[in-house]
Amino acid sequence: MTSVKEQEAIRKLMIFLQEWDSAHKVARSRILDNFIKSNDGKTEPELELEFSQGASLFLARLTAWLRMTYTYSTCLNRLLKSVGIFLSAASGCRYLTEFLEIGGVSILLEILGLNHLKEEDKRASVKLLQLIADAGRKYKELICESYGVRSLAEFLATSKSADAQEDAQVLLDSLGRGNPKYQNQVYKGLIAVLPCASPRAQQLALQTLRVMQ
Known about the structure:
Elements: H1 4-22, H2 25-39, H3 44-50, H4 55-69, H5 76-87, H6 93-101, H7 104-112, H8 119-133, H9 137-145, H10 148-158, H11 162-175, H12 183-193, H13 199-212
Helix pairs in contact: 2-5, 4-5, 5-8, 7-8, 7-10, 8-11, 10-11, 10-12, 11-13, 12-13
C-alpha cells in the first residue's frame, strides 16, 4: 500500500507529464527553463525524489523530442542542457544507458555536421559527448565506432567559435587516452585537421598530437 503522501507525489508527476505531452513548443521551452533552473547539479537520487521515482519517464520524453526535432528545433540548446542534467547526475548510470539506447551518440554527432544549427547548440552537443566519454573506455569506444573522431575533427577544423574548438580538442584528447583500440584513429583524425584554414584549429590539433606522441 502506498501512503497518501506517495500517492500525491505520483499524482503530481502524472500531471507534469501530461502537461508536457499536451504542450506546444513555447510551453515546452518554459518547462525546460524551469527544469534546468530547479535541477541543475542534482544527483540521481535527488532527481528521483523530485520525480517520485519516475525521472526516467521525463528523460524518455526529452530524448524522444530530441530525436524528432534536432534538425530544426528552435530550443535545441535547452533540450540538450536538460538531457545533460540527467547525464551528469552522480550515480546516474541508468540515465546514460537509457540515452544511449535511443541512439543518443549518433544524434549528438549528427548535430555537429548540420551547418544551419547554431554554434552554441553544437558546443552543447560536444559537452554531452564529453560526459559520455568520461563514463569510461567502452563509452569512448562507442563514440569512435559511431565515426565520432571524424565528426569531431571536421567540427574542430570548421567551427567559427574558439570555445567550441577547444571543447572539441579536449574531447578528442580524451578519446585518445585510455582507449587503445582507437588511439591511432584519433591520431589520424588530428593529422587531418592540420591542412585546414583555421590557424586555431591547427594549433589545437598540434598540441594534442604532441601529447599523444
